Amino acid sequence: MHFYKYQGTGNDFIIIDDRSQTFQLDTTAIAQLCHRRFGIGADGLMLLQNETGYDFRMVYFNADGTEGTMCGNGGRCLVRFAADQGIVTDKAHFIAIDGPHVAQISTDKIALQMQDVANIAQHDDDYFTNTGSPHVVRYVQQVQFTDVKNIGAAIRYSEAYLGQNGTNVNFAEKLDPQTLFVRTYERGVEDETYSCGTGVTAAALVSNATKGMSSPIQIKTLGGELAVQFEGNSTDGFTQIFLIGPAKHVFTGEI
Ligand SMILES: N[C@H](CCC[C@H](N)C(=O)O)C(=O)O
């Protein structure tokens, strides 16, 4: 089986061209491929499939082999892959688990439109929203010293979020009026990743609602820089949300 490895701000993915729709691996086999010691190593695995009326369909599996909800960095990487394969040129229109998406393609960046976000909930000092995947946003003083893995896991498995199969957890620090530093514990990877697209999108929208930050918001992650652009506000809802940043081919291989 031929595979491609891509990364977007250090969130890394195995991509398989499944336009022939012959992919058959089960949860255990996908988890094995994503394993960093026994496999290729990745935060997730994606399939690019054909879909009538769209340029392609995005199918996304987490590193544990389970099918995930929307993945923003994965979406950006799959758009870059589609461009590299000649499936799209400067624009992409695809369908993912949370519905249709458009993306604009340039040499160094992919700007991916995310689903509209109607509301943000507050749970004690934390905020919760769904940007295609469920996300908690917690503000901390010095995010570089936060124990993301252990505190993230405690929130992810806490009673409050069991109902929606757990949640991803973002720790955010406002660095200046336009910039956030965000670190994310990812459900399905069950560890911190270098960056999470739906997560930084959630952190940006929550920061508009609670910290008065306006669009575009620059985001620093362990894997690099992203930007989130949007219209609207938490009262009327957010629309025209774009996640913008680099997405790159790393290598190609054969299993
Ligand atoms: N890394 C992804 C999010 C994956 C969400 C997944 N962990 C889940 O909750 O199913 C991103 O860039 O948006």
Please characterize this protein's 3D structure.
With 255 residues, the protein is α+β, with helices and mostly antiparallel strands. The protein folds into two domains: 2-110 and 247-254, Diaminopimelate Epimerase, Chain A, domain 1 (Roll), CATH 3.10.310; 121-245, Diaminopimelate Epimerase, Chain A, domain 1 (Roll). The protein has helices spanning 27-34, 72-84, 148-156, 159-162, 197-211, and strands at residues 2-8, 11-17, 44-49, 56-62, 91-96, 99-105, 110-113, 121-123, 126-130, 134-139, 168-176, 179-186, 191-193, 217-221, 224-233, 237-245, 248-254. It has a 17-stranded mixed beta sheet that branches. Strand 5 (91-96) and strand 6 (99-105) form a beta hairpin. The longest helix has 15 residues, at 197-211. It starts with a strand and ends with a strand. The model has no long low-confidence stretch (mean pLDDT 98). Residues 11, 62, 68-69, 71-74, 133, 168, 186-188, 193, 196-199 line the site of 2,6-diaminopimelic acid (API). It comes from Aquirufa avitistagni.
